[in-house]
Structure formats: structure tokens, C-alpha cells
Amino acid sequence: MPKLERREKQLTAAVSAALGIIIVTASRVSIFVLHKKMPFDWDSMIVIGIMVAIFPIAVLELIDLKWESGIDKNIPRLLREIAESGKTGLTLTRAIEVSAERDYGPLTKELKQLVAQLSWGSSIEEAFHAFASRARTKLAQRTSDLIIEVARSGGDTQEVMEQVNKHIGELQSIDHERYAQMKPYAAVVYIAFGVFLFTDVLLIKSFFTQIVELQAKVMATSGGGGGVFAGAGSVDVGFLKKVLYHAVIIQAIFGGLIAGKMSEGKLGAGLKHTLMLLLIAFVTFFLFVWRT
């Protein structure tokens, strides 16, 4: 996976947001100013605009997460091979240079830049601080700090690097275990959303609609008196549909973000869940509520 710079992500987010705003604004002008008939109503065009705005950002976040995962996955292997190179008597700097000639996936490019900085005369501390800043992961930051301390302390570098590798492996195992335990909660969000969506559709189709039909029959048979419905006012099903639709959309947005935060530790990771939930809500209302 390619590395995405913050500037690229910010630019994509700005363009996506602008595109979503353009869709919403154009639909508003068409519906309320030009009075043209649109394939969907105003509320639905807002949701379409939100989905269009979220889609590119969600894709970039997914790519970025895979890149960061590739960095973290290869760090233990790098440390292990640096320690093995130290067994042959190589200094820490030379062991890093030898290791940089191997393939570590996304980590390879960052490691080559680190070696380039060392060759230009930068200290190990400066080079690894820059490496941690480029890698952008917590594990890379911890690894850099530990290697800097190893370089400062000196002594038996090979033995110390083996201990660093063991420590980083333990940290990685703890992180994997935590994420594995939290991942099922993303499924809970989907289940809760599905129950809420099903309940909304059931209320609209089987409860509110039948009340309106019953009220119309009573009004007709009572000659307009209304009987038990007298003075109760009519049920505005259209308004109730909008209220429930808005509630589903709000749950989709925040539920998706929560699912991403719980399962992968980042709100940005929840954008793909938000997009999926919004699409499910839109398609469900289109098929089972608006078309009937």
C-alpha cells in the first residue's frame, strides 16, 4: 500500500466535502427555486451528498490503515535481524544499514531514508526521531525511543537489541489481543442498527399506516364525527417517516464512527462503517418505505 501524506488526505477531504456541498446545494436549488422534480426528496439528497463526501475519505483511511499495519508488522522482523547482525560484530549503525538492504514492505522506504540520514552525518537520535515522525505509528515511536536509548547506553548491543525485540513483540501481542477483543463490538453496532432500522420500517408499514386507514374509516362511517378520534387530529405519516429516517441516519453516522474507534482504535477507521450503514439505511427506506 502506498504511503499517504497528511496534505494529500486533507486535500482529498476538502475536495470531497466541497463535492458533497455542491450536490446538496444543487438539489436544493432545483427543488425549491427551479421547482424541478428530482429522483429523491430533499432529505435523501442530503444523505447522498454525505455519502459522496465520505466515500473518498473512507477509502484513503483504509489505505492508510493498511500502510500503518504493514509498518507495525515488519518492525519485529527488523529488530530481530538487527540483533542477528550484531552477533557478527557489526556496530548498531552498520547493522541497521545491512538490514535496510532487505525487503520490509512499507517499512523499507522509511528505513532507507533513515540510513540516508545517518550517511549524511545525522546522529542516531535525530535519524530515529525523523523515522518515528514519518512512520506515524505508536509502535514505531516506541521502537525508535528504545533504539535511541540502546545507542546512548552502549555495551552489548546484540543482547540489548534481543531484549528490545522481545519487548516490542510483547507490546504488539498485547495490542493484537486488545483489538481482537474489541472487534466483536463492531458487530454489535451493526446488529443494534439493524434492529432499530427494522423497528422503524415495521412502525411505518404496520402501525402508523394502519392507524391512518382506521381513522379514515371511522371518519367515513361516523359522518365526519370521528368517534373516538374526534379532536385527536390526523396522523401525519409523512412527518413521522421523516423523523424516523433522520433518526436512522444519525445512528448510522455516529454508530459507524463508534464501531471504527472500538474495533481499530481510530475514528477515521469508522468512516467505512458509517458509509455502509448509510447505504443500508438509504436502500432500505427506498425499497420498503418510499416506493410503497
Describe the structure.
There is one protein chain. The protein is an all-alpha fold and 292 residues long. The chain folds into two domains: 68-181, Receptor-associated Protein (Up-down Bundle); 183-292. Helix content is 80%, strand content 0%. It contains ten helices and no strands. It has helices spanning 6-33, 42-86, 92-99, 107-119, 124-135, 138-153, 157-182, 184-221, 237-264, 271-290. Helix 2 (42-86) crosses helix 3. The longest helix has 45 residues, at 42-86. The relative contact order is 0.09.
List the helices and strands and how they pair.
Blueprint: H1 6-33, H2 42-86, H3 92-99, H4 107-119, H5 124-135, H6 138-153, H7 157-182, H8 184-221, H9 237-264, H10 271-290
Which features characterize this protein?
single chain, mainly alpha, 292 residues, 0% strand, 2 domains, Receptor-associated Protein
| CATH fold title of the largest domain | Receptor-associated Protein
Low-confidence stretches: 228-232
**Overall geometric form:** elongated
Radius of gyration from the alpha-carbon trace, in angstroms: 29 Å
Q: Considering DSSP H and I runs of 4 or more, what fraction of the residues is helical?
A: over 70%
Domain tally: 2
CATH C-level of the largest domain: Mainly Alpha
The structural class is mainly alpha
Main sheet: strands, sense, barrel: none
Mean pLDDT figure: 83
Note the total helix count.
Answer: 10
* Beta-strand content bin: under 5%
H/E topology pattern: HHHHHHHHHH
CATH architecture of the largest domain: Up-down Bundle
Number of strands: 0
Distance between the termini: 45 Å
